[in-house]
Amino acid sequence: MSDLRGFDRWTMPGPAYLPANLPPAAFSGVLFRRIMAFILDFILVSIFSVAIWFALAFLTLGLTVLILPPIFPFVAFFYNGLTVSGAQMATPGMRAMDLEMRLIDGERVPFLIAAAHAVLFYLSTMFPPIFLVALVTDGKRCLHDILAGVIITRRPF
Q: For this UniProt entry, which segments traverse the membrane (predicted)?
């Protein structure tokens, strides 16, 4: 038999990076900045995708142009995974808009979670009303942020 005395009084302190524990300045203008960051990143991923497509077409002498799989999802997966899990904790578009992504406990986002976040985001774009969740959640978190366990804030000054 286990001794459970005092267990009901024990509470684990919540993560310091929860939206309720951050100053309001950390979230000022985040939604607009995220939209602008997405536009910049979408342009960059498109440029990389077209460049890779042409390089593959050139390397195969044009034989695989008709059977090349869509390259954009692969480029977006690695682009987001590598840039967000890197030292800057943001994609180039997010850096330009002064944003960063962290796990809900404040730690750096690992590659797989960052890449999965990108997949969830692009799946969310197929159902635009899902983005309305960000209007009512703490910290302006979108549904794909909640599912991936990340938070996007302004960079500390």
A: 38-59, 71-90, 111-136
Distance CA 42, CA 68 (A): 20
Q: Residues for the chain: how many in total?
A: 157
- Tokens 């682009």, located at residue: 79
Residue 62, phi then psi, degrees to nearest 5: 80, 5
Output the CA angle 135-138-144, nearest 5 degrees: 70
The string of pLDDT tens digits covering residues 21-37 is 788 888 888 999 999 99
* CA–CA distance, 35 with 125 (Å, rounded to integer): 12
Q: Is the pLDDT of residue 5 over 80?
A: no
End-to-end CA distance of the chain: 53
Q: Shortest CA distance to 98 belongs to which of 151, 46, 150, 26?
A: 26
